[in-house]
Amino acid sequence: MSPRNRxxxxxxxxSIAAVVCTSPIQAAFLTLAxxxxxxxxxxxxxxxxxxxxxxKLILFTSNVDHxxxxxxxFSESATFDFDSSGNGFTPAGATHPNPACTNCSTSxxxxxxxxxxxxxxxxxxxxxxxxxxxxxxxxxxxxNQAADLNQKGTFxxxxxxxxxxxGNGDGNREIFLMEIATGTPTQITSTTGNGDTANRSAxxxxxxxxxxxxxxGDFAGPSCTLTDLVSPCDNADGNSEIMVYKRDTGxxxxxxxxxxxxxxxxxxxxxxxxxxxxxxxxTRSFAGSLAGGIVCTQLDGVSACDNADANGEIxxxxxxxxxxxxxxxxxxxxGCTGTTANERxxxxxxxxxxxxxxxxxxxxxxxxxxxxxxxxEVFLANIKKKTIxxxxxxxxxxxxxxxxxxxxxxxxxxxxxxxxxxxxxxxRTIYLLRRSNxxxxxxxxxxxxxxxxxxxxxxxxxxxxxxxxxFSGGFNSAIEQFGVSFNxxxxxxDNQKNVGNQEIFFVxxxx
Length: 511
Prior knowledge:
The chain has 511 residues and is mainly beta. The protein is 4% helix and 33% strand.
């Protein structure tokens, strides 16, 4: 951003803060991000959005026919009054420019297939165009699900119970990988049994050379080792373990080797953009001598790992140094109980930050959690400083699915709380919160925190910067999954409210 634009941005932010805040000590920068309609369909579902670092490619799952006979070219300046609120984005009733889809199947109306939306022209693909990537005819909406687009926008990974390559005749869920340029799917895993819990939650590094997932399959054989890159893999008991696939070598790494917990033992692997770190949630204990020679300590870097009570905890693995960090260590009690007490970990590049949601605020932040009533709150672990910060402080509702951006600058999350009075109806909205960059003045919370807790004596810091999607009365999403770009600026998500069926939307946090 040029000095001139930077000065203009801060001037606008300051004017907004002066309007929405009641006193200087409670002031915070707040902007409203305009949500733009990406898909335009009648009936069916468009969900599971993932977005690349440029904000110009959006991957999603759909069971809809996207073929349109006419439509105008997408414009970066075009916005649409989708909620009929008269919000001034564009005249109410404006016609959405239908995306072109030249290779789409007109018969797609049952199975969930993968589609790629492109904002600008590239090669033979026109601007505002949709490309169909998979062509499953059966299997329901979950036939191809939880797809991840790497930040360079070159590869797609997902789990599927369909037979895309002739190697999944038994129909259990396997991991697939596709290079967008070729459009040819590759079956990465080949396991038997365990149905829909066989292999799940694919996650790609920025260059797509590292692919993480959780699996109940046994990869024992010459193409798989534990994290020491020597010891053989072993998952004969069918526990859910964290796995990594290296695309350049075609080999697997079994990151965890545990017993008990079955399909919920170790789940939802998330790979850092540089491919070195893997975050996940686990109900297993990593105390003592571990398989593969991996060393596990708690966040302080000294205390031994311990999860004998089988609470859901957040874990982080450094594949290069063969080290594991138990980020959270909570005990069952109150709302902080079960496999999802701490969940939905995301990790920034170089493993610097790990975001997660938790109902364990009374344990993680006893002196600063306000009402401390164990509702869903957003947390951020600073791995280098060995600290955990509570980013949302509310006394009701939820703050969910936090995603720290790849560069660690922003944490994006869904919430029905009204931070900075911008969501009084407490409908679902998406917030883009700038991470804390310093200490707070005496009596105030840190810059990266927001507060909606009437019983709390905590004061909002004037340096807090937050953006919100501008939906009147919130939006309606069937699932809790959305895409965030590396810099945290671009967000893609699904919404049904006031548009009929579930559509994909796009947000540029700076517009």
